[in-house]
Specification:
alpha+beta, Beta-Lactamase, 8 helices, 57% helix, 18% strand
Length: 269
């Protein structure tokens, strides 16, 4: 028979520890704890025993045994309940910690994915700008803000991507976290999926949006809703400085639909 090496000794020790945590080992630990508590309680109520152990036998009647047993079981019950609560709390905290780490990793992965996709999104907007000879192409993404007291979330719109021609300046700062309730024209035509027309037409329903558009030299506008797998992602827009000189609505609509389908893949998870 060969000698036991250190690794084998460690394995035996781990098995003994694991066995003591459950089954017969766990039962024996509780029994030992009860006996120790019993003895401690008896000594506490009869301190003279320490100096005269013979009194232990003389005073050890049936009523004392019952009282000590009841007290011991109460103490062990409280101990095990507390131990169980502490263990459950520890497990809950551990699970919450794991979920937090997992959520953080997933969030970071989504950020990296989006950063890698940004050049492709910009390229689609540039192609749309060139194909339609437009002055501005943008992607406005939808996101939640704070909630009402009834728990209904406010839906906001932010211009996160923008490509322009030499005719105009960037306008993304004018469209940052705008509450959709302040854009009645967009809300009115949202269910249609798309809209094409002049800013003069928009002004009839939404002076706020018309003023913003004109301040950025946008006089003719088209937009298409970008749909994801399970929800709406945002709005793709194309704008022209000249209200009269622009491609036909059919051509604009065709290019918008093609671009929105490509963007849907890149903007979704």
């Amino acid at each position: 028979m060969g000698k036991m090496n250190f690794k084998e000794g460690e394995e035996i020790k781990d098995k003994v520890i694991n066995a003591s945590e459950r089954g017969f080992g766990y039962f024996m630990k509780n029994i030992l704890l009860i006996l120790l508590i019993f003895l401690g309680c008896y000594i506490f109520t009869n301190p003279d025993i320490i100096m005269n152990p013979s009194k232990f036998v003389e005073n050890f009647d049936r009523s004392s045994v019952y009282a000590m047993c009841i007290l011991a079981f109460i103490v062990i019950g409280v101990f095990q309940l507390g131990r169980s609560i502490l263990y459950d709390n520890k497990m809950v905290q551990s699970e919450l910690g794991k979920e937090k780490v997992k959520a953080t990793k997933e969030h970071n992965a989504e950020i990296v994915k989006r950063i890698r996709r940004n050049p492709d999104i910009s390229l689609i907007l540039k192609d749309l700008l060139i194909n339609l000879n437009a002055s501005r192409s943008t992607v406005c993404e939808m996101h939640n803000g704070t909630n009402t007291l009834a728990g209904v979330p406010f839906v906001h719109l932010s211009m996160n991507y923008e490509e322009i021609s030499n005719e105009v300046e960037y306008s993304y700062e004018d469209y940052n976290a705008i509450n959709m309730s302040r854009l009645p024209f967009i809300s009115k035509h949202f269910d249609d999926g798309s809209w094409i027309g002049s800013v003069t037409e928009i002004e009839k329903d939404d002076k706020f949006l018309a003023i913003k558009l004109r301040s950025n030299k946008d006089n003719y506008l088209a937009f298409a809703v970008i749909y994801g797998k399970t929800n709406i992602l945002g709005i793709l827009t194309i704008a022209f400085t000249d209200e009269k000189n622009h491609p036909s609505k059919t051509e604009i609509s065709r290019e918008l639909m093609k671009a929105s389908q490509k963007l849907s893949i890149l903007l979704d998870k």
